Amino acid sequence: xxxxxxxxxxxxxxxxxxxxxxxxxxxxxxxxxxxxxxxxxxxxxxxxxxxxxxxxxxxxxxxxxxxxxxxxxxxxxxxxxxxxxxxxxxxxxxxxxxxxxxxxxxxxxxxxxxxxxxxxxxxxxxxxxxxxxxxxxxxxxxxxxxxxxxxxxxxxxxxxxxxxxxxxxxxxxxxxxxxxxxxxxxxxxxxxxxxxxxxxxxxxxxxxxxxxxxxxxxxxxxxxxxxxxxxxxxxxxxxxxxxxxxxxxxxxxxxxxxxx
Length: 260
Ligand code: F6R
Description:
Layout: E1 2-6, H1 9-26, E2 31-34, H2 38-52, E3 62-65, E4 67-69, H3 80-87, E5 99-100, H4 109-122, E6 128-131, E7 153-156, H5 159-165, E8 178-181, H6 184-189, E9 192-197, H7 203-211, E10 229-234, H8 244-250
Helix pairs in contact: 1-2
The chain binds fructose -6-phosphate (F6R).
């Protein structure tokens, strides 16, 4: 695991956006895996700014989001589809039919999960997967005790995740109980996994993910098994890392080492 420690949340998000920009430039038909959540807002703002400056095009890109709430239609204001439209899709040159999220209102959510997994494979798999992390160590909506071998499927959200997401809904009772989410195995198939975590509320989960034992009680620890996982954190989220001096020595200011 590569751990990049940046001094501020903004710098951390810009570093993550830079890796997305590199992935877009690296291939004729790049496939991005995207995430929602507050942490990603600054990443998408930076990508939009780069696009407006003429430095970045999504014209040939395909995107797959990690997850969507079961029961919400794509035009529901709290759906992840709408969140992505607001933060990114409507501001860049990505083709609307190239932006994929699971259909939260599919009549058969289980069949929709299988269809989604197959669609990712059909498009050649994901080149770069963006990830956030929950305070309980979830990635996507793979809550603690999720199978580390699972693929896209329905998950029941924990009470803590529903409470954390209630801020986006008028009434906490409206927060859906279920989500369709890529599984840990789906995420591990991405050719590059990039996890961004900022703020002190993520410090314990980050330390467990990077330095703790591999275990389904913290699904993010599965990234220890990924051959190319990059964890980008600000100083607050890095606060409980025991080996922070080592990470900062290898990657001063989050940069790549000069091996020459
Ligand atoms: C959302 C997702 C979640 C979030 C995580 C962190 O698509 O996959 O795993 O990344 O809950 O959310 P924030 O950034 O709001 O703390």
